[in-house]
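Reminder to self: C-alpha cells first, then the designed residues, so the page reads top to bottom the way the pipeline ran.
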C-alpha cells in the first residue's frame, strides 16, 4: 500500500506563505493536493502528472499556489503564497495510480485512491 506523509502545515498571518510537502513511498504517476474546511466539501486544489510535470490548479488559488515535485525523491510540494483566511483547511496529499498525463489533470476525487493523513493550515487576519 502506498504511504503518503504530509508536512509543512501551520498557522500564518494573512499574506504569508507556507510550503507543504508530501513524501511518497513509491513513484506515482498522478498526485494532487486537496483541502477540507469545516462545514465545506473537500475540494481539489492542484494536480500534477508526475511524468511530464503538467499541472492544474483550482481557480481560486491560481497565481498564489504552485504544485511541484522532486521526481527523484518521490516528493510532492505545494507552495502557498499570499495566503487568505479562506485558505484555512486540512490539506491532504493524494495519488491516483490509474491516471497519467492529461487523464491525471482531469481526474476526479474518486480517482484518487491513496491519501495522506493531512496537515492543518490556519490563516489568521
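Designed residues (125 positions):
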Amino acid at each position: 500500500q502506498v504511504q503518503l506523509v504530509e508536512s509543512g502545515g501551520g498557522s500564518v498571518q494573512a499574506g504569508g506563505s507556507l510550503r507543504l510537502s508530501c513524501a511518497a513511498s513509491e513513484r506515482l504517476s498522478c498526485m494532487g493536493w486537496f483541502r477540507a474546511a469545516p462545514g465545506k466539501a473537500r475540494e481539489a486544489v492542484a494536480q500534477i502528472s508526475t511524468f511530464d510535470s503538467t499541472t492544474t490548479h483550482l481557480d481560486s488559488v491560481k497565481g498564489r499556489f504552485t504544485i511541484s515535485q522532486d521526481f527523484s525523491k518521490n516528493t510532492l510540494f505545494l507552495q502557498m503564497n499570499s495566503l487568505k483566511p479562506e485558505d484555512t483547511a486540512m490539506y491532504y496529499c493524494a495519488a491516483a495510480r490509474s491516471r497519467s498525463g492529461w487523464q491525471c489533470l482531469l481526474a476526479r476525487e474518486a480517482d484518487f485512491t491513496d491519501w495522506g493523513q493531512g496537515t492543518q493550515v490556519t490563516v489568521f487576519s
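The radius of gyration is 13 Å.
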